[in-house]
Amino acid sequence: MNIKNPFSSSDPLCETIQTHKQGRPVGVYSICTANLNVLQAAMRSHRKNENLLLIESTCNQVNQEGGYSGMTPAQFAVYLQVIAGDMNFPAERIVLGGDHLGPNPWKNEKASIAMEKAEKLVADFVTAGYAKIHLDTSMPCDDETTLSAETIAERSAQLCLQAEKTAHECGLLRMPVYVIGTEVPTPGGMTVDQLDERSITKVEFAEQTLQIYRQVFSRYKLDEAFQRIIAMVISPGVEFNDKEIFPYDHAKTEPLSKFIDAVPGMVYEAHSTDYQTPQALKQMVEDHFAILKVGPALTFAFRETVFQLASIENEIIFPEDNRSHIMDVLLTTMQQQPSHWKSYYSGTDEEIQLGLKFGFSDRARYYWGYPAVHTAYLKMMFNLSKKYIPLSLISQYFPQLFPLVKNHYLDPLPISLIFASIEQVLLQYQKACGLIG
Prior knowledge:
Helix content is 47%, strand content 10%. By secondary structure, the chain is of the alpha/beta class. The strands form 2 sheets. The chain has an 8-stranded parallel beta barrel with strand order 1-2-3-4-5-6-9-10, surrounded by 7 helices. It is globular, with a radius of gyration of 22 Å.
């Protein structure tokens, strides 16, 4: 069967990697979120240029059972198509990526069952038009304690076989590209139990990992697919938790940079780059961490803006009963449904409450779709859209955007302020990747 895919193939991504390997300090950043306003802001930001937009979804966020977003891979692809249409953004400039694809959502089941579901997961992602596949089989399942590097590589090869088979069955003109790696940072930031586990991958480990994958893929007759591995995930020491941001250290990753520089067609993919400085992001790209993943920093910017708008709402909307009280609604919902944050925050009740609202882990991002929270958000947006926001309040709560509003480059509308705040984060990644000057 031939499936028409409205999204881009991996060609633009491969061209960027090739250009990087030729000595130019360029890269690509990957947006990992299903947040509507973040995706809209990203498309709006990229409308001004011809650069690709790489959007990824994790196995926990999107899978055949719905994930925490409630969407299958096919449904997420349609979701992006609709947003692209609304934003007048060409879908053919979007590259879809699947992140951490493997048995992780089912790691509490037996390995055989979890891997069977992981194969279905990968097949569904490829069928839905995902061109970049991160094979992540690094986690033990219910009937296991630890996994050898060989076992991890073999399971990745099994998933790669399924991806290749599905791509052929779909009649794809361009086969998927792959990302591998066994030292994979925890999706979404460090948990309470991991606060002392920050480390940098040793170059010997990276070299051994690549060698094992090459041998295993050859044994599985995946030599041609191995040539389409464009990146390896390692730990460069950049991390964050609810209170701290651990900065990139160029000197400590120099041996890793020299190693991957000599590997044809391959760069590093850096996870958890959220909250790094613009200088650090630029240095990471120069050090061959040419794929920068970002997610929580974008939804953190969204959350900050919503809270700032809520403060403005408290100043200009009367009587009080007409206000959305979105901060209270969000906090109450998170406390009533703690599954998305209980492993990430610790301390006294007051410290946990502070983390829920303001922590860098931004576990609040899982709650914007809850009915009560979504209703409060819509009410706040309606309240502020029908009421003129005084310039003095823009100065008070959005000082970084005040000059743009004052000089009529930005409308003082709530959605415009949300987009502009998110785009300020995106701008740092665009500059780091050499997409703009």
